[in-house]
C-alpha cells in the first residue's frame, strides 16, 4: 500500500482544476510510487492531479488510504466542498490500519509503523516489518508539516529581507561606483585643463624666446651691416684721398705724415 498522506483541505485548491480542460490532458500515468493509490493503480506526478482524480472518483479514497479516516461523508461529494471547508479547525487523524491507533502527525504514524512493524507492502498487501520511510518521503512530509510551513514562511521572509538587503547594497555600491566615476572624470577633466594650460604657457614662452632671438639676430645683422658700410667708406676715402684721419678727415700723402698728425693732434680713433 502507499503510505502517502494528504490533507482533505487541499481539495479546495484542486476545485479549480475540475473545470480546466488542460488538467485533464495532463492526467497521464507517471512513475512516482509516492502518488500511487490502490483503487486503479495509477500514478500521477503532482498532488493536484491526484485530488482531481479523487474528486472524479470518490470511491477510490478508501482504497487509497485505508489507514486514514475521513471526517464525514461530505468528503465523498466532489462538489460539496462548502460543508468540508467550514470545519478547518478539526484535526485529520492518521491511524494505523492494524491497531487503529490515531496519530496527530505523519511523523508519529511512521515512527509507530517502523517500531511496531505494522507497515503493509503495497503490492502483496502483507505486513512489512522491516519497512523504513524513504528519505524522499521524509523530506516531503516535513515540507508539508504545519510547523514546517510556518518555518518556510519565516524562511521566505528572511529570504526576501536578504534579497532586499542585497538589492539595497547593490544599489549603494552602484551609486558609490557612479560617484567614484564622476570624481575620476572630474579629476581627468582638471588634469586635461592643466595640461592644456601648461602647453599654452610653453607655447607662449617659446614664441617669446623666438621673438627675442629674432631681435638679437636683427641687431647683430644691423651692426654687421653698419661695420661693413664703415669699412667700405674708409676704403673708398683711402682710395680717393690717400691717407685720411678718421677723426678730422684730413688727408695726407704718406703714412708717416698721417701718424705724425695723429700723434700730435691725438686723433687716435678706437678700434671697432
From TrEMBL:
PROSITE patterns: ZINC_FINGER_C2H2_1, ZINC_FINGER_C2H2_2. It comes from Neurospora tetraspora. Transmembrane segments: none annotated. The keyword Zinc applies. The keyword Phosphoprotein does not apply. Residues 132-144, 212-229 have a biased composition (Basic and acidic residues). Keywords: Metal-binding, Zinc, Zinc-finger. This is C2H2-type domain-containing protein. Signal peptide: none annotated. GO terms for cellular component: cytoplasm. GO terms for molecular function: zinc ion binding.
Amino acid at each position: 500500500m502507499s503510505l502517502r498522506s494528504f490533507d482533505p483541505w487541499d481539495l479546495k485548491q484542486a476545485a479549480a482544476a475540475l473545470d480546466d480542460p488542460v488538467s485533464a490532458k495532463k492526467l497521464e500515468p507517471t512513475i512516482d510510487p509516492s502518488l500511487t493509490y490502490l483503487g486503479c493503480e495509477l500514478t500521477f506526478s503532482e498532488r493536484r492531479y491526484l485530488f482531481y482524480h479523487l474528486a472524479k472518483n470518490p470511491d477510490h479514497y478508501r482504497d487509497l488510504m485505508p489507514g486514514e479516516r475521513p471526517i464525514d461523508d461530505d468528503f465523498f461529494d466532489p462538489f460539496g466542498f462548502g460543508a468540508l471547508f467550514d470545519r478547518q479547525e478539526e484535526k485529520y487523524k492518521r491511524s494505523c490500519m492494524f491497531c487503529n491507533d490515531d496519530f496527530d502527525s505523519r511523523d508519529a504514524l511512521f515512527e509507530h509503523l517502523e517500531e511496531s512493524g505494522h507497515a503493509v507492502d503495497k503490492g502483496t498487501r502483507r505486513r512489512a516489518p522491516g519497512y523504513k520511510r524513504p528519505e524522499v518521503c521524509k523530506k516531503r512530509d516535513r515540507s508539508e508539516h504545519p510547523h514546517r510551513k510556518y518555518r518556510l514562511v519565516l524562511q521566505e521572509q528572511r529570504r526576501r529581507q536578504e534579497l532586499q538587503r542585497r538589492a539595497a547594497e547593490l544599489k549603494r555600491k552602484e551609486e558609490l561606483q557612479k560617484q567614484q566615476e564622476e570624481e575620476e572624470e572630474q579629476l581627468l577633466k582638471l588634469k586635461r585643463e592643466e595640461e592644456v594650460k601648461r602647453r599654452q604657457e610653453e607655447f607662449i614662452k617659446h614664441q617669446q624666446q623666438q621673438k627675442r632671438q629674432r631681435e638679437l639676430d636683427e641687431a647683430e645683422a644691423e651692426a654687421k651691416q653698419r661695420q661693413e658700410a664703415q669699412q667700405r667708406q674708409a676704403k673708398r676715402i683711402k682710395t680717393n684721398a690717400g691717407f685720411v684721419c678718421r677723426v678730422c678727415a684730413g688727408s695726407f700723402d704718406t703714412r708717416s705724415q698721417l701718424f705724425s698728425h695723429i700723434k700730435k693732434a691725438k686723433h687716435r680713433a678706437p678700434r671697432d
